[in-house]
Amino acid sequence: MNDVAREAGVALKTVSRFVNGERNIDPVLAGRIGAAIGTLGYRRNLAAASLRPGRSSRTIGLIISDLANPYYSTIARAIELLAREHGFLLTTASSDEEGDRHDALVDRLLGQQVEGLIVVPPRQAGRAWSQVPGPVPPVVFLDRPGDLAGADTILADNAGGARAATVELLAQGARSVAFVGDSRAISTMAERYRGYADALAEHGLAPDPALVSAAAHSKDQAAAVVAELMASGAADAVFAANNRASLGAVLAFRESGRRLPLIGFDDFEAAALLTPAVSVVSQDVTEMGRLAAELVLDRLSGAPARSDRLQILPTRLILRGSERVGHAAGGDR
Amino acid sequence: MNDVAREAGVALKTVSRFVNGERNIDPVLAGRIGAAIGTLGYRRNLAAASLRPGRSSRTIGLIISDLANPYYSTIARAIELLAREHGFLLTTASSDEEGDRHDALVDRLLGQQVEGLIVVPPRQAGRAWSQVPGPVPPVVFLDRPGDLAGADTILADNAGGARAATVELLAQGARSVAFVGDSRAISTMAERYRGYADALAEHGLAPDPALVSAAAHSKDQAAAVVAELMASGAADAVFAANNRASLGAVLAFRESGRRLPLIGFDDFEAAALLTPAVSVVSQDVTEMGRLAAELVLDRLSGAPARSDRLQILPTRLILRGSERVGHAAGGDR
Question: Which residues of B touch A268 (CB under 8 A)?
């Protein structure tokens, strides 16, 4: 601090007050102190000082894709419940799958001195975690893997779940199972595609590019894809690779008055109430959120890191009827 | 400036704002920028730069009932979008309708120095706002009114929407319309009941206690209430006073293989996909969230308070088929 004071040309007391986060400092002097700290290579100390000793934020940051998607709001709720038990608040922010936005949110949350971060990495990769300046609190990657060494990671068995769904559709007699999903730049989507292809291979089949869509980002886009597959007659069953795709398929069935056998990835609230009820690969989303919070809180309490840094949770195939052939689509009759 | 942005790990825009002396820059980022400027020997304009010591949190607090309820996660998302445009993060917490929990969350968020609060008051009233210690930042009550003088309040026209739904069911020939809802200690529920009773009165009818339920807190509880109404034959139509009650009614119809004319309050994603499609009173939930964020941000930017402190947004009756008699319930046939 003496060096900083000399370099900045201010009193030692002023540096001390700056480092302690006091408010009544001339901004010009503060700027000179910041510059001096930089000049002297004290960046790490500055960041450490900004953590305000004696005061901790008791806040965990959560970065997801879109809080309005029930998949993510369920996760956020599960994290909130456990965090609250330990006196932590949750600051939640949506990346919209954009790398730049994700990076800016990481900076903002670190600037906010969150004590832990739970992150769903975005589809569009941003900067490497090794480029994040300053000390990084415990990080847990959720749903998709990230590139920070030593971070905990919680994934669902996406490949296994997709494989089970595809095997079931094949067992029902399908031979042209369509894959209706999002971009395989999303790791979960790539894994689901792998499970789908594995199941086909076990039956001596190969994925047909005409049956594979990566353009179903929304319910309406998925509906258009499924409508086209039905119109062309190319597919005899649909694996919908996320809940938006499932809703889109149901919409397409409803509008055409016909339907194909369907299994979707991710359960959703109305699945059992649709006609026919929609069969799904179910992730234990609440458990994933709870576990992520537990890992962050463990690290904050100084518990030794668990040896299993990567946890892959099993999925469950729930058959409700939509996987079978020959049921009428629900129509407003 | 590009070099500084890269060195500091912040957006170019942030460096530009820092160098231009803007006040609303996170001090931690400002510190990092100062350090980068020092490291790089970039001193131009430094004297003019405003590196504010002390802190502004650039965070808005949001208290809702339950983040896992799509009604609230849609609101949270809308608030987040506008807050983000202005550089604010959102810390969201669930009260679970409990007064004590709500009060503790207010204290925690104020301790966190949120710059504004958006609050859905809980069913169980907690302490009066006049008892909240310390300075209170701008507060907006959302969905339900609160007791803080001078706060902005944004409500939906709950009575008007419920009245319109009930009038429609009566126009379809019903004479024994059931009200399936939650406790009238929740102001929105009391307002919806008022609209329901008003519509009955206009037709020379009075609410029949045997047809009015305040116990439908969850989908399953609502399903049990509707199943009993169908078994007793007491009701010839159902007004479901929230989205959980609507799903419960659909579940009861499905399990019994019969159904009654139904209109629900609040739209939900699968409503149009059910059989028959569920008619609803729709609130513009996204607009409510956006407006709440706008009011908080207005106050923070020093804009004079608008004269209309209470805004009541209109609802919309969306008829999709379930309000009519004689459609079969969706079954897995």
Answer: 269-270
